[in-house]
Amino acid sequence: MSEKRFAKRMWHASSNAIREILKVTERPEVISFAGGLPAPSSFPVATIKKMAAEILAEDGPVVLQYGTTEGYWPLREAIAEWVKVKGIEASPEQILVLSGSQQGIDLMGKAFLDAGDRVIVEEPAYLAAIQIFRSYEAELVPVKGDEEGYDPGALERALKEHQPKLIYLVSTFHNPTGITYSLERRKKVAELAAKYDCYVIEDDPYGDLRYSGDRVQALQTFNPERVVYLGSFSKIIAPGLRIGYAVAHNPEIRQKLVIGKQGADVHTSNLSQRIVHSFLSQGLLPDHIDSICQDYKAKRDLMLAGLEEHFPAGAKWVRPDGGLFLWVTLPEGISAVDVFPRAIEENVAFVPGAPFFARGGGENTLRLNFSNASFDQLKTGCARLGKVLKEFLD
Ligand SMILES: Cc1ncc(COP(=O)(O)O)c(C=O)c1O
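ok -> structure tokens follow
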């Protein structure tokens, strides 16, 4: 069918590069560091099964009926409590339950963006966010950063020059780079957003997965009216429940998000909301998160040791304090896209970094996921990938 049959905003929407890569990695002999999946062994299947049975027995017809767009009130109350550890003070009214935090990125795009509006994104940035903003025909303005987040000078120049409507960022254990914004940079972004009359999406699906270092308060706390915080239970319970949330102090923004969500899915699954509410109200999450973090910390450390042992001199990587990813930079001139087919021949997969760069570049970068592989696979996979990379460097 001709592309012209479709809306203009979809003409250049290529399918998610990572999804294409994941297809190649489905062969069972391939050790995949490519996806961004939590370890299935971390899913509390038995607990969820029991909770679902109890909820349906007690309240089946209500749970199976339509619900409110804003979300199940007791869950909104419980989330308002939950976000206090991030420094966020919010009333239950200011919490909107979402079908995954990804829906929050989409609803912010829907609420704010006309064709040609500008959005500042990190370079590199979360791929799905790039795609969402593009689907609203926004112009992306990538801004470079370092291990503490956006470079303040570069951010201010971009704000002055492009007058964007939105700044998007992943504040803690970034996807793909693993970095965490320092307190100073969080303050600075909030300050610059106010100075240049811009709104901020703080996307934080990984913040609870910390293996070292101290928690940094949410960027949202430095300007609650201008920053919409997006959180998620995907990485700390299970992504298949599809429960995320927005903290939106600004009532006008909140209203637009609710209207957008009405059009998108009416409301988030009642059963999933009730399950997450049970986790929170029974106080089960802290211990569960501790056990996930123990497993992922050991995996992170094993992958870091594997890189140290097997990767060629000249390759560099970020040591993240949490999250699911390591970000590797190869010497200039080596393309991770070229390395990829050779790695697949050796039965190991990763994600080349280039698609995360909204305006091109990053050919010599790649992302490695450590949560979804077994300990043995981490060891073997790092050795295989190191061998392939050494070949390229030689
Ligand atoms: C940075 C980032 N934001 C949002 C999401 C989406 O998470 P959710 O499952 O809550 O929709 C992901 C998922 O991997 C992510 O990496």
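The longest strand covers residues 139-146.
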